[in-house]
Structure formats: structure tokens, C-alpha cells
Design a protein that fits this description.
Helix content is about 10%, strand content about 40%. By secondary structure, the chain is mainly β.
Length: about 400
């Protein structure tokens, strides 16, 4: 009899049936990550979570080491260290989309990891046959600096941790939180472009002769929005690949940038080590030049947008009142309603030092925030006792 009564008490006083006022106080006292995890516990918790005092949304910084992640939340000025079951040893951060991280390990195995649910999605082995071109990956031994080689009929390239460091090129992860659909694209040494869409049986490679007839075409950067992959090529064109069908294909007729290459010659003491692209909420393409003024040791970012009427690329000094840009995301994101401090506000570029700058330029941190309107850089404080570089991370929690 007592066991039955105890069971009834347990059933009637479960976590899902807590008094809303009590549950609201519990949720509002949680750390930032646990605060957003609370909304996925059950429908009752989600209903209460929506009534809680909302926390400011702003980019975080992340460092992944072994089976843990360190997060710095500027809104709370706190660093959180979280152990994750599912993060592989020797994994490295590549990109993120919402609550998902794109990770790669020292075997060049890619996977997607959800920070809230700890769900892990393994992507196909890069050693499997790759569609689209005559390239294969040959793995090295279990240890050593070199992870393996990409081999083509007339070319062989070493693959190592440089893939996430000084040899890092464009990479993008897009995932639909509601349907679970996702697309991954990454560039290596400006020569190799690999893509994978949920449901594909292998990776695609785009090292081929394009419809334009270009030979040895390379890639500066990549972005993804509305089922389209945007490529910024080394001949300064914007190409678009449509992923809405069963097989990706290049879009020709509906590409307004096709016959309008971007041209900019550095002036005077300008050096341009990096070129990026991003897609605005409007769907327009931005080209961002990372410039160093070598005599002044000054870092600048120039933003260009094509005038769709004239077909000319023009420099712009604003990306809108409610948008900010984080390198590695490929799209502009919603900015905080108000200035969150430390330079975190709309009209800013969030960048990370990845070895692409000249050695004579002094970086005061491994991450910075560039104010587009004033050209002033804010250098957030460094993580202490962390050997790996941090990256900006736009949590899609809310």
C-alpha cells in the first residue's frame, strides 16, 4: 500500500508538473547553456520558459579541447567549461549553425554535434569513393603530424591540423533545426571543394572544368543560404550551386553575379591576405576584404556589394542596423537590440586570428571585433590556460 502511495506521489510531483512560479525561478537561475536546455525538457517546461526573463543574444567564443568545450558568454562575462559525451578526442571546431557544431578529428572524420541534446551525426568517411572528380584520400599512420593525403592524377597534397589553422579556408554548416536537413561544404588549400547534403551516399568534389571553361579554378570562400551554395572563386567570380534538387547543379540563368567579376587592386601599403563572402538577409552577396596597412600596422575590413542595376561592385560602409557579420558563418546574423558591450553590436565584423595575417601585424587577442562605421577594433580578453585558439560562435538557442 505504501509503495502504491509513494508511486502516486512521484507521478503527481514530477519535474514536468512543478508549480510554474517555482519552475520559472529555477530556470532563471541556471547558467546560460542550461537555461536554453531547459526549454527542450518537455512541453510544460517550454511553456514556462517562454515566460522567463529573456537573456541578451550575442556572439560567444568557443574553444573545443578533447571531450570538453569552453564557452565565454560576454553577456554574463563568464567562462563555462562543459564535458560532452560524444565529442571525440583530438576534435577540432570547424563551423557552427544554431546549436550544432561541425567538428573534424585527426582521422579527417567529420561529424555534427548538438550542444543542447549531445546528439552526434557522423558524416561519411572521406576515404569512401568521392563523387565528381578523380580525387581520393589516403590516410597516414595512426600518429604523426600528417593525417593523410589528397591524391589526384597529377597532384598530391598533405592534410594535417593546418586544415583548422593557417591553411584554413572557407567552411560552412547549414542545418534546419525543424526538419533536420543539413549541408556541409569546406575548402582546402583553395583547390579542393567538398560538399555533403543529408541523404547523399558520399562526399561531392567540385574540382572540375566549369561551364565557363575555366581551368585550375580555385576557391576563396563559400556561403550557403536558401538551398544555394555561393562560391567566391580565385578568378573573382561568384558561382552558385543549387542544392534544392536530388543532385546539386550550377545555376547559370538565375545568377546575377555570373558576368560581373569583382576587381580590387590593393593600393599603396595595403596587403590583402584574406577574402570572404557573406549573404545578407536580403539575399545579396557581400565581399569582404581583410586588409593590412603594413607601414601603420593597421588592420581594416572593406565591404563591397554589387549594384544590381549597373552590375558594378561598390564599397559600402554599413550592413544594416540589425545585422552583424561573423567570419565562418557565411551569412549575416541578427544583432542584439542594444550594445552588449566590448564592441558587440550591429554593424560589426567578428573575426578570429587563423594565421592569415602578416607576421608584422600585432594581434592583441585571438579574436577581434571590427566596427564598420569607425574602423575601430575591440580586442576581447584572451582565454587563460588554453592552447587552442578560440572562435566566435553564434548560438541559435532562442
Amino acid at each position: 500500500m505504501r509503495e502504491e502511495e509513494s508511486q502516486k506521489v512521484s507521478e503527481n510531483h514530477g519535474w514536468s508538473t512543478l508549480c510554474p512560479d517555482l519552475l520559472r525561478k529555477i530556470i532563471e537561475s541556471l547558467s546560460s547553456i542550461d537555461y536554453y536546455r531547459a526549454k527542450i525538457v518537455c512541453s510544460d517546461w517550454y511553456g514556462v520558459w517562454k515566460t522567463c526573463a529573456k537573456r541578451r543574444l550575442c556572439p560567444w567564443r568557443i574553444v573545443c579541447q578533447y571531450d570538453s568545450c569552453k564557452f565565454y558568454d560576454p553577456g554574463e562575462d563568464k567562462i563555462y567549461t562543459t564535458q560532452y559525451v560524444g565529442l571525440s578526442d583530438n576534435s577540432y571546431y570547424m563551423a557552427n549553425s544554431g546549436n550544432w557544431l561541425l567538428m573534424v578529428d585527426s582521422r579527417l572524420d567529420f561529424y555534427i554535434f548538438n550542444l543542447l541534446t549531445c546528439k552526434k551525426i557522423n558524416l561519411p568517411s572521406i576515404e569512401s569513393p568521392i563523387r565528381g572528380a578523380q580525387v581520393r584520400f589516403e590516410r597516414s599512420g595512426e600518429s604523426g603530424y600528417t593525417w593523410g593525403h589528397f591524391v589526384e592524377p597529377c597532384r598530391k597534397d598533405n592534410v594535417s591540423k593546418d586544415i583548422v589553422g593557417c591553411k584554413r579556408s572557407g567552411v560552412v554548416l547549414w542545418i534546419n533545426e525543424r526538419t533536420g536537413d543539413y549541408v556541409v561544404a569546406w575548402i582546402f588549400k583553395k583547390h579542393y571543394l567538398f560538399t555533403y547534403k543529408k541523404g547523399d551516399d558520399s562526399w561531392w568534389n567540385w574540382n572540375k572544368d566549369w561551364i565557363t571553361g575555366a581551368k585550375n579554378l580555385g576557391y576563396f570562400d563559400v556561403a550557403y543560404k536558401n538551398s544555394k551554395l555561393y562560391l567566391y572563386t580565385t578568378d573573382n567570380h561568384i558561382k552558385i550551386i543549387d542544392f534544392s534538387g536530388d543532385s546539386p547543379k550550377e545555376e547559370i540563368e538565375n545568377n546575377p553575379y555570373l558576368d560581373h567579376p569583382f576587381n580590387y587592386a590593393p593600393r599603396g601599403c595595403e596587403v590583402s591576405p584574406k577574402r570572404r563572402i557573406a549573404i545578407q538577409k536580403s539575399g545579396e552577396v557581400l565581399i569582404i576584404l581583410n586588409l593590412v596597412l603594413i607601414h601603420e600596422s593597421k588592420l581594416l575590413f572593406y565591404i563591397f556589394k554589387m549594384n544590381l542595376e549597373s552590375g558594378k561592385w561598390e564599397r559600402v560602409h554599413s550592413i544594416g542596423d540589425d545585422e552583424m557579420l561573423i567570419f565562418g558563418h557565411g551569412v549575416t546574423i541578427r544583432a542584439p537590440v542594444q550594445d552588449a558591450g566590448d564592441g558587440i553590436k550591429s554593424g560589426s565584423i567578428f573575426f578570429a586570428f587563423d594565421g592569415g595575417l602578416r607576421s608584422d601585424y600585432r594581434c592583441y587577442s585571438d579574436c577581434g571585433i571590427f566596427d564598420i562605421a569607425t574602423s575601430i577594433i575591440k580586442w576581447p580578453k584572451k582565454f587563460q590556460c588554453v592552447k587552442d585558439r578560440s572562435h566566435w560562435f553564434a548560438p541559435g538557442f532562442a
